[in-house]
Amino acid sequence: MSITQQLSTKHLLGIKYLTSEDIHLIFETADSFKEVINRPIKKVPSLRDITIVNLFFEDSTRTRISFELAEKRLSADVLNFSASSSSVKKGETLLDTVNNILSMKVDMVVMRHPAPGAPHFLARHIDANIINAGDGTHEHPTQALLDAYSIREKLGTLEGKKVAIFGDILHSRVALSNIFCLKKLGAEVIVCGPPTLIPKHIHELGIGVEYNVRKALEWCDVANILRIQLERQDIKYFPSLREYAQYFGINKALLDSLDKPIVIMHPGPINRGVEITSDVADSEHSIILQQVENGVAVRMAVLYLLAARG
Predict the structure, then answer these.
(1) Is 62 among the residues known to form the active site?
(2) For the packed helices 118-125 and 94-102, what is the interaxial angle rounded to 10 degrees?
(3) Is 232 a known active-site residue?
(4) Of 34, 140, 171, 183, which one is the catalytic site residue?
(5) Which of 112, 152, 161, 173 is catalytic?
(6) Which residues pair with 111 in a beta bridge?
């Protein structure tokens, strides 16, 4: 596979640093790689001479596995790093950790870190391509790209589509990246959740806020339902999970009462019975499993395009 276009940036630190042309190029490249991963032989030699380290300072299952699979499908050499079993626990700094890894001639770093801005710090200090796999509550760009790609696949375009993001917006890096990505592609966006889980100044991003789940569902074409991130909540933002499910959970009876079908999305992991019921997550309108499949193709595209930038 060869490309004539290039990304405008050497790193993928956040959607805010990508142009709409960058995003379309990633999607077009992902289209080609989606064909590859559906073949009997799912590997291509595109990154055969590239070494990539997955540098995860936070627990992750889906994102890490998706990146690792994408890297191996491209024939890259892959190193996996977990902070829980590293010298970080002995007091080693982030920069020392990365420099030690780079001395092993690593070309690209896929990084997840609990501190917002950690990938940006690395990008200023080392020469390797940096991909942000989630930094604190800031951004998660590849999740937003695969979400938008999945909507494009289902509806044909994002231009003019209405997307509602439900749930814990305050603690979600997925929400911020999705808002940036969707708006750059011409979609209309609102967020919906308890007032305590909606950031105070979110209107400044040029989106709407709705506190009534039914009204949000009646408005949207796509419902992207986010997990309640209890691990990031240092105080109680609502009385109980049971009450959250009653007032803000999305169930089949609620969807059936609408006069139109709505595309259902969720980045996972799902708290079944809290933000979404099983009969919604597993329904014919859900594209949750397609999101997972598309995640590999989109991450292959990002890795391939960044490697071409050198």
Answers:
(1) yes
(2) 50
(3) no
(4) 140
(5) 112
(6) 55, 132
CB 306 within 8 A of CB 108: yes
112 an active-site residue?
A: yes
Instruction: For residue 252, count CB atoms less than 10 angstroms from its CB and return exposed for 0-12, middle for 13-18, buried for 19 or more.
Output: middle
Q: Which residue out of 16, 62, 154, 285 is catalytically annotated?
A: 62
Place of tokens 């499949």: 293
CA atoms within 13 A on the CB side of 251: 9
Measured CA to CA, the distance from residue 38 to residue 51 in angstroms comes to 24
Q: Rounded to whole angstroms, how far apart are CA atoms 120 and 131?
A: 10
Helix or strand holding residue 93 (H, E)? none
Q: Which of 63, 137, 142, 277 is catalytic?
A: 63
Tell me, yes or no, if 90 is annotated catalytic.
yes
Q: Which residues contact 46 (CB under 8 A, 6 or more apart)?
A: 1, 74, 75, 304, 307
User: Which residues sit opposite 81 in a β-bridge?
Assistant: 55
Question: Would you give per-residue pLDDT tens digits along the chain (310 residues)?
Answer: 545 589 999 999 999 999 999 999 999 999 999 999 999 999 999 999 999 999 998 888 889 999 999 999 999 999 998 766 555 555 678 778 778 877 888 999 999 999 999 999 989 988 899 999 999 889 999 999 999 999 999 999 999 999 999 999 998 899 999 999 999 999 999 999 999 999 999 999 999 999 999 999 999 999 999 988 644 445 455 557 888 888 899 999 999 999 999 999 999 888 898 899 999 999 999 999 999 999 999 999 999 999 998 6
Q: Which two tokens stand for residue 107?
A: 């070309």
- The model's pTM: 0.93
- Look at residues 115, 111, 119, 101 and name the one whose alpha carbon lies nearest to residue 60: 111
- Alpha-carbon torsion (82, 150, 290, 233), positive or negative: positive
